Structure formats: structure tokens, C-alpha cells
What does this fold into?
Amino acid sequence: MFRAGMWGLAALVAALALSGCSNKGRLAPVDDHSIGGVRGATRVLPGAENAGKPGYYTVKPGDTLIRIGMDNGQSWRDILRWNKLDNPNLIETGQVLRVAPPAPDVAVARPAISPAAAPASAPVASAPAPLPVPSAAEDAISFQWPARGNLISGFDESKNKGLDIGGKVGDPVLAAADGRVVYAGAGLRGYGNLIILKHNNTYLTAYAHNQTLLVKEDQAIKRGQKIAEMGNSDADQVKLHFEIRRQGKPVDPAKYLQGN
It folds into this structure.
């Protein structure tokens, strides 16, 4: 009986040793959101309590602040500030960001209390961020053609979110309307050297594939001002890709440029 027990113990030790060898070198799953090594304790991402609310956006794989700003009609710098982010490159899938301006703080109505019981300062509460409603004046904005050249490709909501205008390297690219530069750089894949202008709370315009950018972020721009020179950055030919976005959504520029 003692010998049988010893053999059973030896078999158990051998099994444990083999189990240890089989796990040697195996890595834990990369997407492990456990807290402090405790499985089942999932970390809550910033802003999760606002998911689905008007004026907020849930980050998707591949998103950047530039893309989120353009898709929501906002400057990426404003989104950075509204969400108190230190690094624009550090956003996470599932994180919820404010993409509409916060409303001003408003005083909370309180019942009358005696001076002896009054606090040192009155509490305040932030109202929910309202979504901007386009006014008739904002919708009546006049856009001019941003370049002279042949139309290569028209607007297609699923395939081409703007117009492609042909030309030669160095041809002038003009601002379609008065506005402010909210982005100038090459940080958005597929657009090359890109300029985004914000015209009001309703409209943005985008100018892509430039050779040279002639303006800087936060610069005020006048309608018809030369802002870039045409090129083929991140494109298969020399062209200007031009978009008009109404509250972040691409619309057919041809419907806005006719008659200008």
C-alpha cells in the first residue's frame, strides 16, 4: 500500500512538472484589461459614463483626433482642450470624448437659508453640452471653387467624399470661404499634405494632396486667399481633393459651388 502511494505521488509530481513545461514561454493575452492582476476587474475607460449622449463620441480602432475633429466639425485642438488631454496621440478604443463645446456653468437654484448656515461659496453645475443648430445665416454661406482645372472625380458618399480637381504641380489652391485654419499638416492617412478650414459652427472645408502648405493653424483666412500649392502627396496623380463638411458630414461640394 505504501509503495502504491509512492507511485501515485511520483505520477502527480511528474504531471505537475510537465504542466509547468508546457506553459513555459507562453505569453498572456495582449488585450488584458484586468486591474492589479485581478481577472474580471475591467478598467473603466475615461468618459464611459457619457457613452451615447449627444455631443460625445466613442473612439473606434484607427481613430485620431484629427479624424474625429473633421468627422464632428470641430478643431482637434478644441477636442484636446475640452477633454483635458495631455497627449493628442494617446487615445484609446472605447474612450468617450466630448466633441461639442461645453455649456457655460450655471448657478443651481437653492432654497433660502439663514446666513449662519450659508456656505462660503454657492455651488455650480455644468449644463449638458447642447448640439449646435445651424442658423439660416450659417447655411447661406457662399463657397467659391478652390482651384481651376478639370474635374477628375465627382462626389460619391461611399467612395469619394468630395471632388477631385486636376492641375499642375504648384497650381494655386484657394480658400473657398472666409474661415480659420484648424489643421495644417500630413497626419491624416490618405489625404497627404492637408488643410482644414472651419467657417462657422456648421461648415468645414478640406484641401488635400498639396505640395506646399502656405498657412498655419489658427490663422484667419479670407475667401479666395491662396492657402497651398497643388501636388500629389499621398495620391497617384497631381490633384486637389476638396471636401465640404456640414456638421462633420461630407456633402456634395458641387451643390454649394454652383454659380460661384
